[in-house]
Amino acid sequence: MEQLGFDPRYKTHRTLDISAENEGEKAKIAGWVVVHRDKSKIIFIKIRDATGIAQIVIKKDEVDDEFWEIAKNLTIESAISVDGIIVADSRSQTGAELKPSKITILQLSDTLPIDLSGIKTETMIETIFEHRELSIRRPESIAIFKIKHHIARAVRDFYVKNGFYEIWTPYILGTSTEGGAEMFKVDYFGQEGVLAQSCQFYKQSAIAVHEKVFGIIPSWRAEKSRTPKHVVEFHQIETEIAFGTDETIMQIQENLLYSVMKHVIEHCSDDLKVLGRELKLPSLPFKRITFEDAKKLGTKLVKEQLDMDEPEGDLSTPAETALSNHFEDPFFIIRFPTEIRGMYYDSDPNDDDITLSLDLVASEGIGELSSGGVRVTSPDKLIHRIKEKGYNPDSFKWYIDMFRYGGAPHAGFGLGFERLTRFITGVKHIRETIMYPRTPDYWSP
Known about the structure:
Layout: E1 26-38, E2 42-49, E3 52-59, H1 65-72, E4 79-88, E5 96-107, H2 124-130, H3 132-135, H4 139-161, E6 165-166, E7 172-173, E8 185-188, E9 191-195, H5 200-210, E10 212-220, E11 233-242, H6 246-267, H7 269-274, E12 287-290, H8 291-306, H9 317-326, E13 331-334, E14 347-348, E15 351-355, E16 357-362, E17 367-374, H10 379-388, H11 397-402, E18 410-416, H12 417-425
Parallel strand pairs: 6-10, 12-13
Antiparallel strand pairs: 1-2, 1-4, 2-3, 4-5, 7-9, 8-9, 10-11, 11-18, 13-16, 14-15, 16-17, 17-18
Helix pairs in contact: 4-6, 4-12, 8-9
């Protein structure tokens, strides 16, 4: 297939094309200098574009003085265009190099304020995020974002193949869907609004149109959490399915995860290698354990490993992490108590104190990837739940009324897109999976 978008003034080939298979071809590549080594009589240059890295070698006795001076004065991250002939060379990483006949400097770079070749020490982490417009060019960052692209592509492929429709929901809301104080308030033409904490109500409304819906939707939560799995701006893979049950959405999630990981293994082997990540497919189906059993095991693990007592209520972060490390593959925690779950989760018909809700927890200490469950569709029960949580039902009038007009049983979940990317890439902190992360400490650049 013809590659679109190349302007012959700058580029006719990708660095990917500089291969032994294309030996003897004339080529013109353009990109950014990532390696520049002056060996007195030989200069080695490596050029990066979106497809990879190509090597060129300039020998002083083969070029004129002007050509040599151009090559000699290049700096790291300078944008250049190079004309030449593709020559096979087994010593090159790609099996070939470009023997240059012309170098054009498109933009000479100043000296960089940070090292882009890789993290040398942990103390450089802060500098990397202060200069994020530059650090996204690091090999590790490039690999993460390529994998993230493929994750999004695989997610969409999975849903489309399974009959789901993609939706887009509002980002500015008049009422919070989650409640609580963790909201970013905005001025909406003189009225107070909030940035969406989730698209929960809106995706529920969409099932009456499409039955099965999904979206990769942004969310904002004003949490001052400084943990490896929290940021204040993130995306969720949102899913809702009419006439679905808790078992339905568990099957969707385990097959989604398996499909996405398989796609990444097949299409991102070089990027995984850059990250030193050996990704293995999980076994299906994923293990299911009740909240009660998870709480008991988590209590035991944190006592043994950290000599800490597990508090009452929801799973603590140490307990969740311990459980995440305990199991080899992702697993589900099911049947959470009603008192610790959202107002929209329906309860077991035989036990109103237990919800038909669940969390998907990743292995390797990553922790929770998603939350979901069966939804309350009775307006009266929903009003009761809203009051129980201390909210005013009048603030949720349209949402409650929606179920008076053809409400149907349904279930859904929200799976953290960046948390999934963190799990697949194996990076330490979720902010590494985001081009420009927003945390309590970072909102610039």
